[in-house]
Amino acid sequence: MRVGYVRVSSKRQNLDRQLEALNDVSKIFTDKLSGKNTDRPELMAMLDFIREGDIVVVSELDRLGRNNKELTDTMNLIQQKGATIEVLNLPSLKGIEDENLRRLINNLIIEIYKYQAESDRQNIRERQSQGIKIAKKKGKFKGGKLKYQKNDPKLQHAFKLYLEGETEKDIERITGINRRTFRRYRERFNVYRSDDDK
């Protein structure tokens, strides 16, 4: 059986392009979740559904995972089931009749694709890092926007509770501000108690 899997990053995005590309599959599983989200119920359902001899069809390899490790793990699960993968934007292997040879070439192509995708991501991260360093030198980099300003009522309430002796754990429970986040804001705005180890 040819089994399709499609994923878009949010509920607002349209699945039509991927669904049209997978018009010859017998069953389709769809997720509307970011690739960063590893809890993808339809991907898990697809992995549970497939059987030996099935072909998992995706429009692009990154639909199965956002990095090399996730892709490798997912592909290993597919192969453990005795199924194979067909990636529509990679070279077609339809002319090769020997199944073992087709599987070998398919795996080699996918490994090259994974390497290239991971390399591209690393290059993007390096360029971003270099850009931030240059901007900092020029005094133009301001960093991410603060979630709370100093006069934010919620943050001021948290500071008040802290100065009155509440623990960071209790402050998190009362205000909803994560304790690590709260600690960073205390340090940023110099909010300390006499018993703090500065």
What does this structure look like?
With 198 residues, this protein is of the alpha/beta class. The chain folds into 2 domains: 2-119, Rossmann fold (3-Layer(aba) Sandwich), CATH 3.40.50.1390; 153-188. It contains 7 helices and 4 strands; from the N terminus they run βαβαβαβαααα. The protein has helices at 16-21, 41-49, 68-80, 99-137, 153-163, 168-175, 179-188, and strands at residues 2-8, 27-32, 55-58, 84-87. It has a 4-stranded parallel beta sheet with strand order 2-1-3-4. Helix 5 (153-163) packs antiparallel against helix 6 (168-175). It starts with a strand and ends in a 10-residue tail after the last helix. The mean pLDDT is 80.
SSE series: EHEHEHEHHHH
Distance between the termini: 64 Å
Radius of gyration: 25 Å
Helix content estimate? 40-55%
How does CATH name the architecture of the largest domain?
3-Layer(aba) Sandwich
Tally of strands: 4
* CATH third-tier fold name of the largest domain: Rossmann fold
Categorize the overall geometry: elongated
Number of structural units classed as domains? 2
Strand count, sense and closure of the main sheet? 4 strands, parallel
Question: What ranges have pLDDT less than 50 throughout 5 or more consecutive residues?
Answer: none
Look at the structure and name the CATH superfamily of the largest domain: Resolvase, N-terminal catalytic domain
Strand content: 5-15%
- Order of strands, main sheet, comes to 2-1-3-4
Number of helices: 7
CATH class (first level) name of the largest domain: Alpha Beta
Summing up helix and strand content along with how strands pair, one would put the structural category as alpha/beta
